[in-house]
Amino acid sequence: MGPSAGSAAREPPALRIANLTAGYGGQPVLKDVSLAIPAGEWLALLGPNGSGKSTLLYCVAGMLQPTTGEVELCGVSLVRDPRRAKHTLGFACAPERLPGLLTGRQCLEVYAAAKGLRQVDAEVLDLMERFAFAPMLDRFVDTYSLGTRQKLAVLLALLGTPRLIVLDEAFNGLDPASAKTLKRYLRTLVEERRTSVLLATHALDVVERYADRAALLLGGRIVKDWSAAEVTALRATEDGLEEAISAVAAGAA
Fold first, then answer.
1. Which CATH number characterizes residue 75's domain?
2. What percent of the chain has pLDDT over 70?
3. pLDDT tens digits, residue range 182-221?
4. How far apart are CA 78 and CA 84, in angstroms?
5. What's the domain range around 218?
6. What's the structural domain count of the chain?
7. Among residues 31, 152, 244, 251, which one has the fewest Cβ atoms lying within 10 Å of its Cβ?
């Protein structure tokens, strides 16, 4: 049985971003971004290449220090208490950032130890089997295909039952069966465990079928945030989210 309405109202959001500005080499990429994801919600972050999606995810993961603003994970400041904040986070790094000189098994063991786990979660092992990843466990990561690296990055992100899962184009390179498995797995976590998901993606079918909300990032700013009710309504229209994005982008130009 889920939490009562009163306890849910008191629960801090899985992610709160307030007035965030960030960039590289003194050049801002994100400009005064504010965003919140409550517990048990899947938010899809949309936007063209170069709009700042990955930069925003790096700030959420603590990989990039913002110039100004605040990031909180489950009510804990990422600046003031990064270790405790990151304990609630599962971040799937870019496939090319995985340690190529380790095997898949070694990666899982190292990441599990870093999260204070004595062993890899049983549910992660189950997903690994459904991904048909087991035959790759003792091969070196630098021999993996893109899709196999994506699977490993996702498995690593799911270690330790994180409250917030952050994914950057996680379906790129996945075969159709594995992509379907991951979509359904994430949806189950959202609905049954009140896990939250932040997914940066270009795949509108994922958004329309699985996400609760969608936010559009253009030029480093959130220019539109579609509520769960609005996303549901868009599913019933002929052109759906694609036409809505085009209309917002045209108005912002």
1. 3.40.50.300
2. 96
3. 999 999 999 999 999 999 999 888 988 999 999 999 999 9
4. 8
5. 1-88+163-170+194-253
6. 1
7. 251
